Amino acid sequence: MHLDEEQVQRHLDGELSESAEASAREHLATGGLVALAVAEELVPFEADTAHPLPPDTGERDGWRYRSFPVAIRDRGDSVVLERVRVLTAPDGTTSSEDDAIALATLSARDLEAEGRAAGLRPEPARFIEETDAHLGSAVVMLRG
Fold first, then answer.
1. Average pLDDT rounded to a whole number, residues 19-25
2. DSSP string of 48-99?
3. pLDDT digits (tens, 9 = 90+) for 134-144
4. CB within 10 Å: which end of the chain, N or C, has fewer?
5. CA-CA distance, 10 to 98, in Å (whole number)?
6. Is 43-105 assigned to CATH 2.20.25?
7. CA 78 to chain centre
8. Per-residue pLDDT tens for 94-113?
């Protein structure tokens, strides 16, 4: 589950779970299914600036988006993902900015328990194998 810094603090204060669970209940049709991918084993690293890792990329309406992973830092109850985001406009102008986001540390089991407390019914989790481009993850399945 990806949470920004404000959401991490709200989660730690016990506020986010209640609002997120309420939102899931409100937007999930009776019998509906929500699937949430959780990467439980983020390994801290720092990229070699001489040999950067390949970026996640996207393109829309002539704009090109690239996000280069720089580091993962373990902060105990959260991890910080650092990256450089590069935006190329249709006219070829490029800009970049450093970006960091804190993600709450949350296991699939924790998420299932929170879903259960919100009145959702956990179903057997699914697993996505790791590839060269992406981490493996557990997919928590919660039915309304």
1. 59
2. -TTSPPPPEEEEETTEEEEEEEEEEEE-SSEEEEEEEEEEE-TTS-EEEEEE
3. 778 899 999 98
4. C
5. 24
6. yes
7. 12
8. 999 999 999 888 889 988 99
